[in-house]
């Protein structure tokens, strides 16, 4: 199983950066796994449009250069792990 080369700090519904709440994307060759530690988080893929509610048991996968944003659904804690190869969920 691939190991992340970097992880974000743990964010909550208050500290979740504005950049993650707006359209953004990973770089070429970089996959992300959004892991919810507590609560729920909505992951929205922009093109093609799709939404997924993330929970501690259901992380979200972001492919390289995939435009997306997240929305806190109440109190939550989350972290993003970044990989140079496709990770397993």
List the helices and strands and how they pair.
Layout: E1 6-7, E2 11-12, H1 18-21, E3 31-38, E4 41-45, E5 50-54, E6 60-62, E7 68-72, E8 77-83
Antiparallel strand pairs: 1-8, 2-8, 3-6, 3-8, 4-5, 4-7
CATH topology: Jelly Rolls
Distance between the ends:
10 Å
CATH classification class: Mainly Beta
The radius of gyration over CA amounts to 12 Å
CATH architecture heading: Sandwich
Strand percentage lies at: 35-45%
Q: What level of helicity do the residues show?
A: under 10%
Following the backbone from N to C, one meets helices and strands in this order, namely EEHEEEEEE
Secondary structure class reads mainly beta
What gross morphology would you assign? globular
> CATH superfamily, please?
Jelly Rolls
Whole-number mean pLDDT: 97
What's the total helix number? 1
Low-confidence stretches: none
Major beta sheet summary = 5 strands, antiparallel
- Total number of beta strands: 8
> How many structural domains in the coordinates?
1
Structure notes:
Residues 6-80 form the TehB/YeaR-like domain. Pfam families: TehB-like. InterPro entries: RmlC-like_jellyroll, TehB/YeaR-like_dom. The protein is mostly beta strands and 89 residues long. It has one helix and eight strands. Strand 4 and strand 5 (50-54) form a beta hairpin. The N and C termini lie close together (10 Å).
